[in-house]
Amino acid sequence: MPVLESSAVVLILWAAIGYGLGSVPFGLVVTKAFGLGNLREIGSGNIGTTNVLRTGSKAAAALTLLLDGGKGAAAVLLARFLAGEDAAQAAGLMAFLGHCFPVWLGFKGGKGVATFLGLMLALAWPVGIACCLTWLAAAAVSRISSMGALTSAASGAVWALLLGYQQVAVLALLLAAVVFIRHSANIARLRAGTEPRIGQK
After folding, report:
1. Eight-state DSSP code of residue 40
2. Of 70, 120, 89, nearest in space to 14 by CA
């Protein structure tokens, strides 16, 4: 954890700003802008990149990935620039929770992977890059997107410690716990051997 230097009011303010940024459902916005229909009625109904890809538009999925990652990074970078590292972590955590549990959608949001990666890149870019590479390696080996996501999330705190960013490790653990909770159905399918592979119809 970073040293707490900001006042409680400042931390609460940036937590609220972070939540507001994170709760913007870019998956819904992008699919509507692309004329792809109601994302809630497509595939799993999730607002994240994987479900946007099920619309058949790789461009929409890529844009959703960038925006969902970008909103987490933006929350961190703005708070760091205007307040400090403690505010950056508060804003980042709440941006992540805002994505997963947006008030506008009845607290039913995405699974947090893109936002997690954006946060890690903004908080400590070497850790973020390591998490991204971990996702790519695990997904490439297993051919299962959720396996890549879970492995990447689980590796965050480990990479933070190994790369000398101990102040990020606790937050990385919290984020990983939420990612695993949000992927509970995927984990059940992985155990049953029924989780679809990348490219599988």
Report:
1. G
2. 89
Number of structural domains the chain divides into:
1
- Residue 60's domain spans which residues? 8-192
Q: Is the pTM of this model over 0.70?
A: yes
User: What is the Cα–Cα distance from 179 to 28, expressed in whole angstroms?
Assistant: 20
Q: Which two tokens stand for residue 108?
A: 């039913």
87-122 pLDDT, tens per residue?
Answer: 999 999 999 999 999 999 999 999 999 999 999 999
What whole-number distance in Å separates Cα of residue 150 and Cα of residue 114? 12
Q: Is residue 125 part of a domain?
A: yes
Residue 122 lies in a domain: yes
Q: Which residues contact 121 (CB under 8 A, 6 or more apart)?
A: 69, 73, 128, 129, 132
200 in any annotated domain:
no
Helix (H, G, I), strand (E, B) or coil at 165: coil
Q: Which helix (H) or strand (E) holds 148?
A: helix 145-162
Is residue 22 one of the residues assigned to a domain? yes
